[in-house]
Every structure is written in structure tokens, then in C-alpha cells.
Amino acid sequence: MPVHDQGLPPVDVLLCGAPFDGGTLFRPGARFGPRAVREASALARGYSQALGVDVFAELTVADGGDVGGSPHDLERVLDAIAARSAAIAETGAICGFVGGDQTVTLGALRGLKRAKHKSVGLLHIDSHINASPTADDGRDLHHGSVIRHAAREGLIRADATMQLGVRGPYSTADDLAFALGRGFEVVSTDDVRWDLHAVVSQVRRLAEKGPLYVSVDVSVLDPAYAPGTGFPVPGGLSTWELQQILRALVGAEIAGFDVVEIAPAYDPSGITGIVGVTILQELLAALADTRRSIRPAKSSRSTSTSRRGKRVSP
Known about the structure:
Blueprint: E1 13-18, H1 33-40, E2 47-48, E3 53-54, H2 55-58, E4 61-66, H3 74-90, E5 94-99, H4 103-116, E6 120-125, H5 146-152, E7 156-166, H6 177-182, E8 185-188, H7 189-194, H8 196-207, E9 212-217, H9 239-247, E10 254-260, H10 271-294
Parallel strand pairs: 1-4, 1-5, 5-10, 6-7, 6-9, 7-8, 9-10
Antiparallel strand pairs: 2-3
Helix pairs in contact: 1-10, 3-4, 4-5, 9-10
């Protein structure tokens, strides 16, 4: 169900592609991520066995098309993403973006701040902190500096920000200084691997702190599970571990979410696109289970196909 000029469709969740990788510093190609996820969505299913919930019995989900913009004009694209994010938030719906590189997250957070007039918590699942300084080519804003900009613009709450799955090697011993100095909760890949149950509990506590934006960079996974990404880092999470973490978001007030850094050209097998769909399925299932617990009457309403989403794609 595309977004029409006269307004947004009446949905609970609108998935939007953000085919942009102008913030990339290393391997480009994430602009083709939304296309890869749409193609892989043929494998999507609506019922979560883990949570025991039928996503589309609880949520109306639609494909909102792609956010337009020049792939060479970072600020203009971020403005377009922010405008889409704000417009959807103002309707009371939740927007999920499929990127695109991590700069997509900054646009989405700017839009939420514009619509809600307050900052939100952040669960940033990534192998990198993304608080880097100005790049060697002189760019201050790029996919490696998004969290630094989001914090300085007041888009995220320092007391409700968790960066999960980060791992070295780092450029210097100070690479984590910005996050730790701001009071962010930093959870390393080693923390997850040594005690997944403790990390799941940490995520649940984060979810109790109020509205939360969730950003998943597929580089958090070991390249064996998601080779199609712009900055692969060996030694990452397994897909199963990521699923357990996302399932801990049941009960969270998710204000928006994204899945970024899928660069299909580096993955001839197409597995990274399938991983993108899996991440969306887990996020939607967590939202559906939360909705079921607070609005149990919804599943007993009419199941007319004119009001129910059928696709899990951006």
C-alpha cells in the first residue's frame, strides 16, 4: 500500500525504503538494501512461533515506498527522511526504515523530535559506536558519526541509550570515550556471548524507560551470517542471538525503528537480504505482542483484507 499524495494510509506500521548510501566511508552499495529486502520478503511469514502471535492479526502493516532524494546530497536526503518520519509519527503510526547506510537513523530521529517535541531512548545494535570525529576527507557527518550528531542535537536521551554488539579492533583506546562520557550503556559482543540472559535483561530494563527508537546495523552480525554489508567485522553475533535480543523488546514503547547497512552486492547468496526480513519480522512480532497485551480486543475485530497488512517489506 503506497503512500499517496493526499495523505498516509491508515496503518499501525509503515515500512519505508531509504535507498541512500551517501554517508558511506568504505564500501558503497547500501542504497540497494531496500530492493534486496523487498525481494527477500517473499520468504516472510506472519506468525511468530517464539512469541505465539500473528503479526497481521494485531497490526496493519504496509509498504510506504521509498523516500526520494539525490544520492549525492546528504542533507537533502536527511531532510526528506525527517519529513517522512515526522509525518508518520504525527498520525500515531510507527515508521520503520530500511536503508541505506546508518545516516538514515539521524534523519528518522530528527523527524521524531520534530513530531513529538522530545528526545527518545535509543537501542543501537551495531558493531560500531558511530561517534567518530570528522573523516579524513573532511566530512563531519557520515555513517560513522551519526550517534555523535544525534546526541549533540538532543535527539536521544543519554540515560536511555544502549549501544549493543560493539566490538574492536578500534582505531585508538579512546574510540569508546564519547559513548562512555555521555553515560551510554555499552554492551560488547563479548558481553552477549558470555551471558546472553543478562543482556536480554538489560534490554528489558531499557524498554521500561519510555519511548525507544531501535536501530539495527546488520554489521552487528558476524559476516558468516550477513556478508552483504559495507563494513564487515569478524567475530559478531549470530542471527539467533540477535533474535533473542529483539524479542526482549516485547512491552517496549517503540517510537520507530530501522534496519541499515545492507549492501547486497557483496553477498551473491542473498542471505543478508533474508536477514533484513528476519529482523523486520522480529521487530513487528514484538510490536504485535505488545499491542495484543494492551489492546486484546483488536484480534477479535473484523479481519477484512482492506484493513490488514499482508507484506513484510519496506
